[in-house]
From TrEMBL:
Coiled coil: 474-528
Top-rank lineage group of the source organism: Bacteria
Record region (Disordered): 532-564
Gene: kaiC
Domain named KaiC: residues: 6-245, 246-477
EC number of this enzyme: 2.7.11.1
Taxonomic lineage from the root: Bacteria, Pseudomonadati, Pseudomonadota, Alphaproteobacteria, Acetobacterales
Top-level EC class: transferase
Organism in which the protein naturally occurs: Belnapia arida
Protein name per Swiss-Prot or TrEMBL: non-specific serine/threonine protein kinase
Length: 564
């Protein structure tokens, strides 16, 4: 908050971010615009949320509508004006001013008004006040000098009592208000605009001035929905994105394996592009199922099919998204791109993201917006979505329909803003279309550069490496035929090898048999040799024994002859 200017929060989603805190405390704020742009609703939201959420009671001064009508008008928004009135936190003062009757009396000033406002403020101890609308109050003035003096007097009266005031005014010709004076004495001026372009209505807000403080100066789309007034602060988005090292699964294990470490970085922006029928929505559904299976919440925006149709179609590939819808983890929103303006689509999507706070958001397909607005407007809108998701650490998955096969650029011109890009191809060969997947880029992650065949079955999605042959990459039936041919060749080679092995085994056995026969023959000859040698040894021993015996016999005979 800027020093010197105290601010009071309005409780209006997005508006307090634009104004860096809310409206100037104790000062008047002018909210002007044409009929039906949401002035009274802005003021009612400011008053009701101040009493309910910030403990600041308020007074609603109406110069046109009756109190009962005001209560009934905001009842559908859940403000509970009747309860706040009963609790003494809001007081509605209805003041009717008829210029024709006042002219009969004479000069007219605001003394009586100040007295009634004083009593109303004291009745509830108000800190906030709404004057709706100021044209009715000053319709009795014909003298411009007196009018200017009374307007300044009213604003000074509000400041003296420290009331944070919201004053609504009808837009005039060539000026912000009919009188052309209120904007000069107001400390803050907010312009609401309701325009119709190409038969599509859009509401926008612009802060014309805000004394003493910085604020957003662009036009911002805003919504009037069941919870009141909300603004999308698109200019507050910057490049202060959250960075995560954590990985998330795509729900397709083969795709996760193509990225080193498995899966994509959390909080990244992922683009799926391809021609019709290439499988973009099926991959997106796999991301959704994986996030929900991990116990996280996911948000799916469809611009071509209803949520029920998507749930039915995904059952054919084994994904049951219906159970995640039933338990509140998955929310599906389907709408035609031409149903709202681009700004309204942006505001609605980011409002739903802020409410649900999912970990994954899918837009399917972003190319559908190209028929809803100018190319640059579409790019700007999608850029804001990407920045918003990144700044909140939410993973964004964007599908894009390509009209040219194999195109490596998107009609929306967002490919350079994406952290990861998965290109899906349909290849025609041999009278059939085969799906292929190519991971073009994945910032900060080493990944495979191979083209994978993309196959969908009733058990999910799988990626098959194509056969890279002499004729190039083969997929589908050509791949299967080539693989079958290779299997036959491998089987024949195995059979030939078995025959050669059998022949070698037979030869080995014959050789071993021959070796055994030669070994037996050798052993027989060795045995014969040993027998001969043994007989020779014995014969020699016998001869030696005989010689000894003969010698002994001869010595005995000689002795006998000597004795004689």
């Amino acid at each position: 908050m800027t020093a010197g200017v105290q601010k009071v929060p309005t409780g209006i989603d997005g508006f307090d971010d634009l104004t860096l805190g809310g409206l100037p405390r104790g000062r008047p704020t002018l909210v002007c615009g044409s009929a039906g742009c949401g002035k009274t609703l802005f003021a009612s939201t400011f008053l009701a949320k101040g009493a309910r959420d910030y403990g600041e009671n308020g007074v609603f001064v109406s110069f046109e509508e009756r109190p009962d009508d005001i209560v009934d008008n905001v009842a559908s928004l859940g403000f509970g004006f009747d309860e706040l009135i009963a609790d003494g936190r809001i007081f509605i003062e209805h003041i009717t001013i008829n210029p024709a009757e006042l002219a009969e009396v004479g000069d007219y000033d605001l003394e009586a008004l100040f007295m009634r406002l004083e009593l109303a403020v004291e009745a509830v101890g108000a800190k906030r006040i709404v004057l709706d609308t100021i044209e009715s109050l000053f319709s009795a003035f014909t003298n411009v000098a007196v009018l200017r003096a009374e307007i300044r007097r009213l604003f000074d009266w509000l400041k003296e009592r420290g009331l944070t005031a919201v004053i609504t005014g009808e837009r005039g010709e060539g000026a912000l208000t009919r009188q052309g004076l209120e904007e000069y004495v107001s400390d803050c001026v907010i312009l609401l605009d309701h325009r119709v372009e190409n038969q599509v209505s859009t509401r926008r807000l612009r802060i014309v001035k805000y004394r003493g403080t910085a604020h957003g100066t662009n036009e911002y789309p805003f919504l009037i929905a069941e919870d009141g007034f909300s603004v999308l602060p698109v200019s507050a988005l910057g490049l202060g994105h959250m960075v995560h090292e954590e990985r998330i699964s795509s729900g397709i294990p083969d795709l996760d394996d193509m990225l080193t470490g498995g899966g994509f970085h959390r909080g990244s922006s992922i683009l799926l592009s391809g021609v019709a029928g290439s499988g973009k929505s099926s991959i997106a559904a796999s991301f959704l199922a994986a996030a929900c299976a991990a116990g996280e919440r996911a948000l799916y925006f469809s611009f071509e099919e209803s949520g029920a149709q998507t749930v039915r179609n995904m059952r054919s590939i084994g994904l049951d998204l219906g159970r995640y819808i039933d338990n509140g983890q998955l929310s599906m929103h389907a709408s035609r791109p031409t149903f709202y303006s681009l700004e309204m689509h942006l505001a609605i999507m980011l409002r739903d993201v802020a409410r649900m706070q999912p970990s994954l958001v899918v837009l399917d397909p972003i190319s559908a917006f190209l028929d809803a607005g100018d190319h640059r407007d579409v790019q700007a809108m999608l850029l804001r979505v990407i920045d918003y998701l990144k700044s909140h650490g939410i993973t964004g998955l964007f599908t894009h329909l390509s009209h040219e096969h194999g195109s490596v650029q998107t009609d929306a011109g967002l490919s350079s803003l994406m952290d990861a890009w998965v290109l899906l191809l349909n290849r025609e060969a041999n009278g059939e279309f085969n799906r292929e997947l190519y991971l073009l880029k994945a910032r900060g992650i080493s990944h495979s550069n191979q083209v994978r065949e993309f196959v969908m079955t009733d058990h999910g999605i799988s990626l098959i490496r194509p056969y890279l042959g002499e004729q190039g990459a083969l997929t589908g039936s050509a791949r299967r035929a080539e693989e079958a041919r290779l299997r036959r060749e491998q089987a024949q080679r195995r059979l030939d090898a078995e025959v050669v092995e059998q022949r070698l085994e037979q030869r080995r056995r014959r050789t071993l048999a021959q070796i055994d026969a030669l070994r037996a023959e050798l052993e027989a000859e060795e045995l014969e040799f040993r027998s001969v040698a043994e007989g020779r040894r014995r014969s020699d021993a016998q001869a030696q024994s005989d010689r000894l015996a003969m010698a002994k016999s001869r010595r005995a005979q000689a002795a006998d002859v000597g004795d004689e």
